[in-house]
Each structure stands twice: as C-alpha cells, then as structure tokens.
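A protein record pairs a chain with a discrete description of its three-dimensional fold. The following entry can be read in just this way:
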Amino acid sequence: MRAKPFALGAVALVVLALGCSSCSSKDACGGCGTAEICDAATKTCQPALAYGQPCLDNAGEPLALPCQEGSSCETSLTPAICGQSCDPEATQPSCTSGDQCWTLLDDAGTPALDSQGVPVGFCGGVSDAGQSCGVIGFSFCNPSLSCVLFSTTAVDGVCFEPCNPTTTPDPCASPTQCLAVFSEPTEGICWTSVSPGAPCEEAQQLFCPKGQLCLDPGDGGSCWVRCTPGGATSCPVEGEACVTPTTDQTLGVCAEPVAAGAVCDPPAGMFCEASELCISEDDGGSTCHEECNDGGTCPADQECLGIEGSSLMACG
C-alpha cells in the first residue's frame, strides 16, 4: 500500500487521559491504554501525552509527560508532536493495524525530506465522510475526500466529498446533494441539508439546502437564497435584490435592501444595495455608503475615502 499525502496545521491542544492497569512484563511493557505509558521499574501504566499531541512547550523544552506507548516526540514537525514515523516509500510501512503511512508535505505541497534527503512520513488513521480529520490524533481523509476546516483557528476539520454545485445533474449520491458552502460558487460538498427555514451552523454540519448560503453572526445562522451580483438571474421574491453581505463582492444573497444612508446590520438581515457597502461608524453603528474608486464621483458633500483594513473605497 503506497503512502498518502497530508499537510499539517497548527496545534494548540493538549489532552491527558489518566488511568492505570498492570503492564504485562518489564520486557514487553504492554497493555497500557491511550495516553499512557508503561513504567518499566514499577510495571504500572502512567499518564502520558496522547498520540498527535504537542510534546514541547513554547520554549522548545520537553513537557513533563512523555509520549504514549508506540510514539515518540517528533521534532521534525512544527510544532513537535507525539507520533510514529514511517517510510512512505516502503511497500509495507511499519504502522499499527488500520493506520497508513502519510507523507508529510511542505508549504509548497511537495514531500518534506529529512536531513538524509529521505521523504518524511507518519502513521495515521483514515477518516470517512463526516468523520474528523487533522493532525490531532493523526487522522486523515480517505484520498477521495477533502478535509474541510470551518474557521481559521480550527486545528481539525471534517472529511467531505468535494463537488461542483453548478453541475447538472447533481453529482452526489442520494440522499446527499452538492451544497455550496464556500464563497466560490463552483466548490461544494456532498452532504445532507437542514430543513427549509431551520437554523444553520456549518461547524456543526448543519448546512443550508441546495442553492442557499448560511450567514452566521456567531450565535446561530440562517439560510439565504444565493445569487450572483450583477447576474442576469433575478431573485425569486418581489422587492428583493442580490446584495453582498460580506467584503467578498462576488458573494451575493437575495434580500430586500435598505435605503442609501440608512442603518445596516447584516447579521440582523439589514443589507445595503449591491453597489453600496455597510461601514461601521464612530458611534458604533453602521450605515450604507456608496462604493467608489479612487478619484471617483461622489455626492457633492462627500469624497471617495479608503476603508480601514480593506482595499475597498466608499463615499463619505
């Protein structure tokens, strides 16, 4: 079986599982559970760092606990993690039953090499659709799946089958559908959706029905009909327009926009016109401002100004 590629992300979680049992013998030193290691002197299982957990502190010093049985502190990883190295080019890598030898990729997506120029590999499990994936526990998606992280701070994600939501007929096997959960309309995942009108929360695998997008202000999201700003297709409800609720001006949803200069609050469903931006004011509120280009035309009492933290400009 050939090795499988994977890329590593940041890790900031240490999990300790305590408990003891008798070791089988001083020589074999076996029988300990997850996050345990056998003390050869006492022949008892002692607490240890679980497989896939950081083993050095922020100063680069070893943590008080060792790695669990069958793993060691792999300092070739950043951060250093408890794992089991393997040869990804071997016909039968030395991994425990059920694990595969995954090739470590560098930032450019090519196999990382050790000091001898040999590819670096680590043993890890294989996750199916809907199961967790990531460096914690060294569990990686089946090669036909993709590991999706739903926030920039997440250290692990969920495996899904990728698909193109614009393809007809739907490329996913029933009862799943190709759901557009990303800002790019041609990228989606095969999964089931919540019932129409139900709350959505993508981190909890609560996805909107096909053709809708989840807008989540952080306390529970809601589904909106997706549209393409500037596209020829109109929104299904009279009075609605294709508005852009985020700084991504290619991402649109159907909603009834508020008037120019009025208060806007996208999390509450108060959106600006597609040609306007919702900008925070000094008093803590937000209002709609006409988008403009450097040197562009604005109302007589306004000028085209840059928006802090963005490359966009608006009249103000």
